[in-house]
Amino acid sequence: MTDPYPQRIVCMTEETTETLYLLGEERRIVGISGFTVRPPRARREKPRVSAFTSAKIDRILELQPDLVLGFSDLQADIAADLVRGGVEVHVFNHRSVAGILGMILTLGGMIGCGDKARALVASLESGLDGIRTAAAALPRRPRVYFEEWDEPQISGIRWVSELVELAGGIDCFPELARESLGRNRIIADPLEVPRRAPDIILGSWCGKKFRPERVAARPGWQDVPAVRDGQLFEVKSSIILQPGPAGLTDGVREIQRRIVGWASVQAGQRSLRVDPPRP
Prior knowledge:
The protein has 12 helices and 11 strands. It is α/β, with parallel strands linked by helices. It folds into 2 domains: 9-93, Nitrogenase molybdenum iron protein domain (Rossmann fold), CATH 3.40.50; 139-272, 3-Layer(aba) Sandwich (Rossmann fold). A 5-stranded parallel β-sheet has the order 3-2-1-4-5, sandwiched between helices. α5 runs antiparallel to α6 (114-136), α6 runs parallel beside α12 and α7 crosses α12 (245-272).
């Protein structure tokens, strides 16, 4: 019997590509985003037919896909052009950890691989449970500022905020996590970050290299605990800025590593401050 599910899929963002590879269904992929780096073999095996806000519509149509997968309002115009070209398109718009897991289940159902998708979700949830358990043992939770972009300063991606909390941190800007659009997550006053006194600063400048020294040199930031203690670190965009499996594996583990490192430094400082025994 002929498989009735999509056989020629174009993935215009990385998270669906990675998910299909993890499901063992990469044979269905006929085109990917040029920003795809996970898994590395995808760039060698699949033609690149889109960026994020642009795509080679004619090239996609030449591939004769029976399904194109996109993400968010930023790809709405591309999706509309493809629909007008007679292509079936599904645009995901998830923003949370639960949404990422839901995306995997939905995609698995769309290609007739529900059981494999449920197994993958169970594995990811198990890993997150382990990180949550480890976080509960921390003696103190650090305040964490995550910066998605530097000019203007943008923070508050919901799944990142949730992963920071899950790994044992306290997101400095939890109110921004309610906003899906980047323009609504701009920190208008740069001095608001120092006022919230982050213990750790994590940066992922959307593909541009994070520069801790530039952050530390910002006017009024010198007394920020993270700056004072040298707790400024890059998190690669490929493992945290795509709403897919990467964030729930390598991304959250990197956040956890920085939080645990901070906790170790704090423990060492406390031991140095212990009063000597009385005679």
